[in-house]
Structure formats: structure tokens, C-alpha cells
Amino acid sequence: MNFLEERILSDAVVKDGAVLKVDSFLNHQVDTDLVEQIAQEFHRRFAHKPITKVFTIESSGIAIAYAVARQFGVPLVFAKKSGSVNLDGETYIADIPSFTHKVTNRVIVGKRFLQSEDRVLIIDDFLANGYALQGLISLVDAAGAQVWGLGVAIEKGFQEGGDRIRNLGYHLESLAIIDAMDPATGTITFRNNGGTK
Ligand code: 5GP
User: Fold this and answer.
1) What share of the chain is helix, strand, coil (3-state, %, to 5)?
2) Which residues contact residue 185 at a Cβ distance below 8 angstroms, ignoring those fewer than 6 apart?
């Protein structure tokens, strides 16, 4: 078991509706040492790639993506959630259904922050049905830039996003893959290859 899987077992809470709560260490209160370790692990896994931008979505992926961007020494760009319909031609737009909030968020990124020569590493905290990652991929595509990899801290392997993204041919790395979790008992089962070693 790797460091993130151990932390999930000790501090995460399994909720109804296939939701894992990690707000004591990852996406409300943030354990900065853990995030640093996560970033080092992503850097190790994608070190051979000449990444020029790290890209994520507002808001809970920002802490991890920031730390990853520092590892690579490149800028972090995050797609902003936008309430307004801004079609002024200066932004790329994607509509992304939110797994946790059951709404669709319009997200935007300024055209000047994603350019055709960029080699992009997409980072997020969770992968469930894959809508967030697919929305981010569509923004990179719209810019004519290239997705060189995707990294998520926690993949819920019993939901379809991971398979869908891998089947599209992308290099996706998940630090912890959960194959089953039971809200009644709190039991969490990891996929064997979810370890770092
Ligand atoms: P997807 O778009 O892959 O369906 O869902 C991914 C997004 O939903 C992530 O950006 C994450 O913020 C949120 N999310 C999905 N599942 C969970 C979960 O079990 N726990 C938490 N805390 N967030 C989740």
C-alpha cells in the first residue's frame, strides 16, 4: 500500500452516493506535506515528458496542481468556473457536469494561457465518471495544444471515467485506485496496481 492509500484508509470517510470525503487532508483542510509527496510522485511518473503547463479545474484540484507545477518548474493554469456566458472570443469554454454537486459548471480558460505549442499535464484530485478530465481535454484541444498526460490523486475505479480516458489512448496515472467502497461498513478496497512500488 502506498502513502496515499494509507492516508485514505486512516482519514477518508465513505459517504452514500459513491462519494469519498477527504476534506480533512486534501480538499478542505489540506495537508501540505501530503500534497508535496503527491506532487513528487507525479513528477517521478511523468518526469520524462517535456511538460510546459499544468492544467486543472477550479477549485479542489488547485492545491495538488500547484505543487505539481512547482515540481516541473512550469506555470499552473486552472479553468475557472464562470456563472456568466462570456462569449467574447477571448476564452475557450467547456460545460462540465459536476459529480459531487449535481449541476453543470461552465468553465473557461483565457486563450492566452493555453497555446498551440503547449504540452499539457492535466491534474485533478478525483476521477469518477471522467467529465472533469474530458472537459479539460476539450479545452486543451480547442487551443490546439497537446495533452501529454493526466494525473489524478484518487480514481474511483468502479466508475467509468478511468477506463474511458485510457481507452482514448491517454497516459493516465492514478496514485490510488479504489475498486470498491461500502458506506455501511466504511470498507475501502484498492486495486493492486494502485501502489507506487
Ligand atoms: P468526474 O468528472 O470524473 O465525474 O468527477 C471528478 C470531479 O468530481 C473531481 O473534480 C472532484 O472534485 C469531484 N469528485 C468526484 N468524486 C468525488 C468523491 O468521491 N469525493 C470528492 N470529494 N470529490 C469527488
Assistant:
1) 30, 30, 35
2) none
> Which mutation among 14, 56, 99, 107 tests ligand 1's pocket best, with the greatest number of atoms within 8 A of CB?
99
Query: Does the reported pTM lie above 0.85?
Result: yes
Residue 150 Cα to ligand 1 middle (Å): 15
Pocket test of ligand 1: the residue of 125, 134, 179 to mutate, having most ligand atoms within 8 Å of its CB, is 125
Is pLDDT of 194 > 90?
no
Name 81's bridge partners.
107
Distances (CA, A) of 86 to 22, 103, 108, 144: 33, 19, 9, 20
Residue identified by cell 490523486 is: 153
Q: Is 164 left (phi over 0), alpha (psi -120 to 50) or beta?
A: alpha
